[in-house]
Write a structure and sequence with these properties.
six-stranded mixed sheet, alpha+beta, binds zinc ion, about 450 residues
Length: about 450
């Protein structure tokens, strides 16, 4: 029996609260709004003209000094990690975080005020399943300052974290599965901690106008200074976990894996998020349907031959199996020992010539061009190939999945396509092709 897929969630209704911005010390109102499926978390700057939004995605990460800043164009939002951690850990996949300043209210330096806000807004299921990143092979990032983060395969999202201050003082360890209940109880109340030597210069320069012992724990030598006593004896490591969750939320997919972090910081958290995003892109590029769909999804051999003038032995596409968008499609070619080129390339050691793979890419790209131009009276002629790489031999019996994506079309006459061929989940060849259109 198939288990019901985990669904995406958004907030039930809009809700907000007002507080102090850490860096400017100004009043800021933050409001959460429901958002459609697959839209992810977006920050909205209500104080700016046209109210621009920024996707909370790793590609929008700008800086990681002390806090995490994201931006698009000239627009920035600072210190996003605590609100992101709260949304992500409390199960919110899609939401608009609207603010009338460039950073959220700092609250008490923990994620408590955001969890309270999410509770007020409610969390509601949507109709599409969640997107996951399942860790297959162990990944790791490390820094020269002694940070090490390892990501291991796991069916759950777990974090095990070791924190240690200068000279290993305040060494703490905490391990948990990230669920809404555990996060709310064990992690959300843990406050930011700072070292006096680090914040003193910032205070002198008036760069943290909103900072006070009400929203951070200050460590000065052996002394721990804060307005209220420590909430947990190991509050520091719990806050480190909070930051890891918030920074990894920038992946935009639910991680299924075990994060083992030693002395983590925003920079290495972000580096891991980047590595995950890169791996996800690689997997998406290699993901190919295992069955050949029929009907509207692609083109059968007949339809391919109505578009392409090529015939045996020069037709290098059997079918188009899918059009992802108007500018992206995947074709398939089954290579048999009966291909004429194997007779001479090479007897006793049959390998598909690389130029035939380039020809196959050009033919799939031509089909995209045809679909875009919507006419059979003109045909795209192959002009040049750049960045051509042959990575692995293609042998009789292989099925080649030919990916093509139009990246540029300059006016009516020129177009560029990025292509690659995949066999058994490995890229065997790739090229950037240029075309010109001519009348038939
Ligand atoms: Zn933090």
């Amino acid at each position: 029996m198939a288990s019901t897929p985990e669904l995406q969630h958004t907030v039930g209704k809009s809700a907000g609260f007002t507080g102090t911005a850490l860096h400017t010390g100004e009043r800021v109102t933050l409001r959460l709004h429901p958002a459609p499926v697959d839209s992810g978390i977006k920050f909205k700057r209500k104080d700016l003209q046209d109210e621009p939004t920024i996707d909370a995605k790793i590609e929008n990460l700008k800086t990681v000094e002390r806090a995490t800043t994201i931006g698009e164009g000239p627009v920035r939002v600072h210190t996003v990690e605590h609100v992101l951690a709260a949304l992500w850990a409390m199960g919110v996949d899609n939401a608009v975080v609207e603010m009338d300043a460039n950073e959220p209210p700092i609250g008490d330096g923990s994620a408590q005020s955001y969890v309270d806000l999410i509770r007020k807004a409610g969390v509601t299921a949507q109709e599409e399943p969640r997107k996951f990143f399942h860790v297959r092979d162990t990944m790791h990032v490390e820094s020269k300052t002694g940070t090490l983060i390892i990501l291991l395969p796991d069916e759950k999202f777990r974090i095990s974290c070791t924190q240690a201050g200068p000279n290993n003082q305040f060494s703490q360890f905490f391990s948990m599965e990230v669920t809404p209940a555990v996060f709310e109880r064990e992690i959300a109340p843990a406050r930011t901690f700072v070292y006096y030597e680090d914040v003193k210069p910032l205070m002198d320069k008036n760069l943290i106008k909103g900072g006070s012992l009400e929203n951070a724990i200050v460590v000065r030598g052996e002394a721990v200074l804060s307005k209220e006593p420590l909430r947990f004896s190991d509050e520091f490591v719990r806050h480190k976990i909070l930051d890891v969750i918030g920074d990894l939320a920038l992946v935009g997919r639910r991680i299924r894996g075990h994060v083992v972090a030693v002395k983590p910081g925003h920079a290495t958290n972000a580096e891991l998020a980047r590595a995950i995003a890169r791996e996800q892109t690689r997997r998406s590029a290699l993901a190919t349907p295992r069955t050949m769909p029929s009907g509207d999804g692609g083109l059968d051999t007949d339809q391919v031959m109505q578009i392409l003038p090529h015939r045996f032995p020069f037709l290098m596409v059997d079918r188009i199996i899918s059009f992802e968008t108007e500018t992206k499609c995947v074709g398939v070619k089954t290579v048999t020992i009966n291909e004429p080129f194997f007779q001479g390339h090479f007897p006793g050691h049959p390998v598909m010539p690389g130029v035939m793979q380039v020809e196959a890419m050009a033919q799939v790209a031509s089909i995209l061009l045809f679909k875009l131009a919507k006419t059979t009276s003109r045909i795209g002629y192959f002009m040049s190939a750049d960045e051509v790489k042959f990575r692995k031999p293609v042998l009789p019996g292989d099925t080649i999945f030919i990916h093509a994506e139009l990246t540029k079309s300059r006016g009516e006459r020129l177009a560029k396509a990025k292509c690659h061929c995949v066999v058994n989940d490995a890229i065997v060849s790739e090229a950037e092709l240029m075309f010109t259109f001519l009348d038939k």
